[in-house]
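If you are new to this repository, start here. Below is one unmodified record pulled from the training split, so you can see the exact layout before writing a loader.
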Amino acid sequence: MRTVKATAAAVTAALAAGTAGIIAGRIASDAGLKASPGRPLPGEPRLTVHSTAAGRITLTRDLAALRPGTYGLAGDASHAVVGPVLTAEPHSADTVVRRLERVTHGTLEPGDKVWLTPNTYVGNPRSVLGLDHTDVEIPGELGTLPAWFVPGPRDTWVIAVHGLGTTREHAMNLMDFLHRLGFPVLAPTHRGDAGAPRPPDGLNHFGDTEWRDLDAAMAFAVGHGARRLVLHGWSTGATMALRAAAHSDLRDRVRGLVLDSPVLSWERTLRALAAARHTPGVLLPLAVRAAQGRTGLPSDHFGLYADRTVPYADHENRTDDMGPDRPPPPTLIFHGPDDTIAPWDLSRRLAGTHPDRIALHTVRQAPHAAMWNADPSGYEEALRRFLTPLM
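And here is the target side for that same chain:
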């Protein structure tokens, strides 16, 4: 009897532990599956505003606060733009002084909690950039997708797609630059964004289903005069661009891809996001399995280009169905080794598969999806050189 009771107790404990592990994995998987547009990704530190003065802001000293470049500075009820670190300005050992370019929304007060964001604009292309634009509605798979359209004289359109933690406002970092080059720009929303349809399961799929919303934007562009397309995506938006270039019925219209911080391994990105929430390492595999169970995501590989295997997953390789006679379109990747969300080594390996077609522009000291922010002039010059033959 004692043996039976002991066995029953052991089984009960094992079942309880298994149930607890499943629950813990599910909670950990929320770090990626429920990342909210416009909110900081896990691991992005909250900084305290210590003081502001004319053209100056003093923040908590942190590696994030020391990043080079230009960033949005977001709070729960404010938004500003900060420029370079002002090392010559007097400050205490635990603070950093940066140039305060402008306050775009709300006010900044001592004690406010803020975070750095790639979004340097809040509003729409007309209100913040002075660009004529049209609010358009794209018929999507799940319903209407709001989008901004900025017209231009060329018949090559740029479709700019945001990714994890940002909104279509992210595209405004480059809209004025692209407008000066004469490109029409379409900045669509996708499922899960404000004003767009909610995914059926309410979860992010790291581009695996969202790419069909980009496909709808491509159809809209072609239906309204675009003869050629350049897909410019950030983070999971870059993943969407890759999948659209491989699988869309309009892939022959794609003349170029611009990939900023592409998520090429959803498993590694999910692990990174969960770890940034201080998930114990032993639970990270459970987070991945929970994500697969909740979303139906395939094991860690996305099909890219078929004329050779693209080994960008940790443990599996896969070839795509594009066919050996279909090379990738000209592709420019912006990425760097300081991205802790989407591994840079995978971008290097992807660029190595087609060195004649895929160029990697390395940006150092830049966090995820903020390659432009770290070096705006260098980014735009590399982009100008890439786009010029595609005009």
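Two things worth knowing about this chain: DSSP finds ten helices and 14 strands in the chain. The first strand starts at residue 47 and ends at 53.
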